[in-house]
Structure prediction request, 359 residues.
Amino acid sequence: METSSDMASPEEYFDNFAAILDLTYGHWKTAIVRAVTSLRLLDEMDKLSSDKDGSPVMAKEIASKCGTHPEFTYRVLRAASALLLVEEHDSPARSFTVTKRGSLLLERQEGSARGVVLFEGSVEHCRCWLHLEKCLQTGNKVVRDVFEEDNYFDAFSKADSKHKEFLKVFQQGMASISEFDTRSILYSFDFSKFREICDIGSGPGVLLKLILKKYPHMKGCISDLPRVLDEAVTIEPELQDRCKKEVSDFFESVPRNYEVYMMKHILHDWNDENCIRILRNIRECAAPHATLLVLEYVLPGPSIVSPGKIFDLHMGMLHSSKERTEDEWKTLLAKAEWKYVGYQDTVSGQISVIQAQKE
Prediction:
C-alpha cells in the first residue's frame, strides 16, 4: 500500500492520520469528561479512597455509590484513564484512583473545573457546534437553531424561557472559568500601583474581591445590572469598608470618576459598534487620565497556536461577536478615543491584560 506522496515517509503519514483521528474523536473525550463529572464518579472514588487511606477503589464500588451500571462504569473509567483523569491499578483488579488532573473535576477541589465542564460539555453547547457548517456558509450565529431565541442570554434568562434550567449551568460555568482566569491574572499582573478599581459588568465580582484581598490598600466598586447585583453579588464582611456595589448599564453609563476601570470577558460578547459605544461611555465617566484594563484574549499572528483562535468561533456562533488581535484592539480603542498602552499575557495563556489610557 502506498501512502500520500505529500508525506516524507510512511511514519509521517501514520502519525498525521492518527492526529486527525484524535481530533475527530474529540467529542468522545468531551462526553467522557462530562459523564464522570455529572454522575460524580470521581467524587465518589475520591471519598471511598480517602476512607481507605488512599487505596485504589474498585469500579463496582463506585457504581454502587453512583447508581450506575457496574460493567459500563469500569469501561468508562478505563477510558478516563486514557485521558489521565484516573489511574487504573492491577491490585485489586479493576480499581482506580483519581489523578492530579482528575482532581480538578472534584466538587470539593478549590479552583475546580467542574462548572465549565458541565457548561461547555452541555447538550446545548455541543448542539451549537454541530451547526458550525451552517454558520460557515451564512456567517450568521446559530442561537435560534438551538435555543429558539435570537439573543443567547434571553434563551435562558427570560421568565418564559424553555431553557430556564440552563441558567444555573451557565452561572456555574462562568464562575468556574472566572476563578481560573482570576488566578492567572492575579499571578501575572501587578495591581499594587492602583488605589481604586471599578469592575464593569462584573457578575459576582470574583476578580475584584480577590484583588482587594491581595492588595489591602485598594478600594473597589462592583458594577452591573440590578438583578445581577441583587442575586449574584455578596460582599464579605472583611471587605465591607473597601468594596461597594453600584447599579449601571454599560450601554448607558457607568460609575463616575474612578481612576481605573476593568472589564473581563465583556467586549468579546459584542460587535465593534457596540464595543465602541461601551468604551465611549466609560471614557465619558472616567476620571482624567484614567486607566482602562480590558481582560480578554489577544489573538497572536499566523502559525502561533492559541486557544483563542478556536474560542473566536464559539463567540461568532453564539453572539455574532469575536476575539481580537492586537491591531484590532488598537483600532477599537482608538475609535473610542482611548490611547492604547500595550498588553501583558498571563500565565495560563487563556487571557491577557490590555491597558489603555484616557488623555
